[in-house]
Amino acid sequence: MKIAYHPIYTHPLPADHRFPMVKYELIPEQLLREGVIQAEHLFEPAPAAEEVICLTHSKSYWQQLRDQTLPAREQRKIGFPQSPALTLREIVITQGTIDIALHALEHGIGLNIAGGTHHAFADRGEGFCLLNDFAVAANYLLEQKKIKQALIIDLDVHQGNGSAAIFANNPNVYTFSMHGAHNYPFHKEVSDWDIPLQDGMDTSAYLGLLAGALPKLINQVKPDLVFYLSGVDILETDKFGKLKVTPDGCRQRDELVFECLYKHQIPCAVAMGGGYSPQVRDVVNAHCQTFKAAADIFGH
Does the keyword Ribonucleoprotein apply (predicted)? Predict the structure, then answer.
């Protein structure tokens, strides 16, 4: 199991943005302490190359990120003030997703402690997302002929609107999103398959929908690789999620996905996505369950 880790993740952020980001420091610490992983499973990626980024993102948008010339209005949409360190963080995360996807193709599973920046469009960022790491990785693997067909399974509580828009006319990447019907983004894009969830949905209903969808996805799409966004903002404790999924239900969700992919011998690249419970331990514990499920099902 290979895990992309980004020790620079929180440092460039203003103080008022750091609390939800501290999980990226705490997750590897907990996994190491509990013996789920060893230090050799962790690696720090290099920054993604400009030509790789521009397979997905417009050159003009990338140049604004690179040269720190994003208009104030665009910065407000993203939610972070621009800085060189923030751009560096994003391109390191993006390369991490490429690296774990390549690892998954050979060894079955790879995980990114960050990533899942699914609100970034080809020409703009939104919702704390500057670059769309899944989209960049998928387009890179397709361009390199490493895969012919990718599937994005997006189980963050927020719709992957950027991913849906980027791949709207690309039959080689199938986008699937289960998300809150009345949650951000309030203007939804059209994925290949969207399952909108009503506020207050409980664990049983959530898992039932997912269990019914997974075999259909595999049989229809027949992917060479799955990108799995395992956001834990579906938790009943989440400040913004509006669902009633228990921590055990969140763990069962991950197991459903991993067991289905393992059964069909489909490699999987995983990114953590969102999680905004008031108690950071709830977020960290839920994310760590994703790593434990991956290790149990796919092995180290």
Answer: no
